[in-house]
Amino acid sequence: MLYVLILASITLILGIFQLFSAIRNRGSIIWGLLLVIVPLIFVFISAQSVIKTAHENNQSVANTSLSTKKSASLRDNKLEDISRASKSSSSQAQKALDVKKNLAKSFKTFGTLTYDADTKTYHVSPTDKDTKKVFKQLISNPDQVENSNFNDIEDKFVEVSKTLKKDLGSGYALELDQPDQTNKAMLIIKDGKTTYNMFS
């Protein structure tokens, strides 16, 4: 749910950006309001879930630490190392797929999410018509970036990347692709740091 919270926050920022853009361009604000209200609901619900999960995890860690100490003394260290090594590779791949599912749900209103296991990269491709239009305007007029919320989007992507590093380890990247061009990035964040920003 932490991913949902972070990505709902990103979508909320994008919705605010869309709402201001619609107001400034004297367009319809219905879509902008929808992109503000729905993520706001998700932020509220997922924040409650994250708090509840954190509390439950603290209790389970306390309970399992005692049983882990007892069972660890009964195992042979060499067999435990072999078992851990074989489980870690399969569980790491499963974790990456689980993260993809959570991220895809969170980015549903913003765009599509794909995962490239070879490069350990999560690609976010905007599919919302208005968001694509705004990004295309920024690409054609980069001087407008300072007046937009693109830096806020970058900050939220950095937060998601830090969470990826915490949950999956180093080497995983989060990439925001240009509209209709999945092979060209606007933003690449890896291990919580911006490695590429087309506007910098």
TrEMBL record:
| Parts of the chain that traverse the membrane | 6-23, 30-51
Whether Transmembrane counts among this entry's keywords is: yes
Print the keywords alphabetically.
Membrane, Transmembrane, Transmembrane helix
- Establish whether keyword Transmembrane helix is in the entry: yes
Write down what this protein is called: DUF308 domain-containing protein
